[in-house]
């Protein structure tokens, strides 16, 4: 049986820039960074018991990341639960991060209060959400 959610694997064109975004701006913890057998690098960044596994291939990676349309199977975005969507929006905007969707009320209001979307340095869609209080 499944015990829990472990990590999401991503590819980065510039690992240092990606680590600066996720650790420096969002507060994830750098757990491991090392060279791969192929000459690239790999990093594990942790928050709340879940990790991002980020690979920087030796030959580089194309940017921006391709956004998966809603009509196509695939992973569309990664989501971070936050206490205050407006606060993370203001913090990231002050750091120069552009948002594709500014803070707004969530469509799935039964579970989620508010959301906002931006892209990481490689164009991967990142969602921030506030959950509805438990009844």
Overview of the molecule:
With 135 residues, this protein is α/β, with parallel strands linked by helices. It has two domains: 1-61, Roll (2,3-Dihydroxybiphenyl 1,2-Dioxygenase, domain 1), CATH 3.10.180.10; 63-135, 2,3-Dihydroxybiphenyl 1,2-Dioxygenase, domain 1 (Roll). It is built from two helices and eight strands; from the N terminus they run βαββββαβββ. It has helices at 15-25, 85-94; strands spanning 7-11, 29-35, 41-47, 50-56, 78-81, 99-105, 112-119, 125-131. It has a four-stranded mixed β-sheet, with helices on one face. The chain has a four-stranded mixed β-sheet with strand order 5-8-7-6. The mean pLDDT is 95.
Helices and strands in order, then pairings?
Elements: E1 7-11, H1 15-25, E2 29-35, E3 41-47, E4 50-56, E5 78-81, H2 85-94, E6 99-105, E7 112-119, E8 125-131
Parallel strand pairs: 1-4, 5-8
Antiparallel strand pairs: 2-3, 3-4, 6-7, 7-8
Helix content, binned percent: 10-25%
Q: Largest beta sheet, briefly?
A: 4 strands, mixed
Mean of pLDDT: 95
CA-based gyration radius: 16 Å
- Number of E-state strands: 8
Show unreliable segments. none
What name does the CATH topology of the largest domain carry? 2,3-Dihydroxybiphenyl 1,2-Dioxygenase, domain 1
Number of helices: 2
Approximately how much beta-strand content do the residues carry? 35-45%
| Main sheet strand line-up | 1-4-3-2
Morphology call: globular
One letter per element, helices H and strands E, the order comes to EHEEEEHEEE
CATH level-two architecture of the largest domain = Roll
What's the CATH first level of the largest domain?
Alpha Beta
Q: Would you identify the CATH H-level superfamily of the largest domain? A: 2,3-Dihydroxybiphenyl 1,2-Dioxygenase, domain 1
């Amino acid at each position: 049986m499944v015990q829990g959610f472990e990590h999401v694997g991503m590819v980065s064109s510039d690992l240092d820039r990606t680590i600066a975004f996720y650790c420096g701006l969002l507060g994830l913890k750098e757990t491991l960074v090392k060279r791969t057998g192929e000459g690239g690098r790999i990093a594990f960044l942790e928050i709340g018991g879940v990790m991002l596994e980020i690979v920087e291939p030796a030959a580089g990676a194309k940017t921006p990341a391709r956004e998966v349309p809603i009509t196509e199977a695939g992973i569309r975005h990664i989501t971070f639960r936050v206490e205050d969507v407006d606060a993370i929006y203001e913090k990231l905007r002050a750091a120069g991060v552009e948002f594709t969707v500014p803070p707004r009320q969530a469509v799935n209001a039964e579970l989620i209060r508010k959301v906002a979307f931006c892209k990481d340095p490689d164009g991967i869609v990142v969602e921030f959400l506030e959950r509805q209080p438990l009844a």
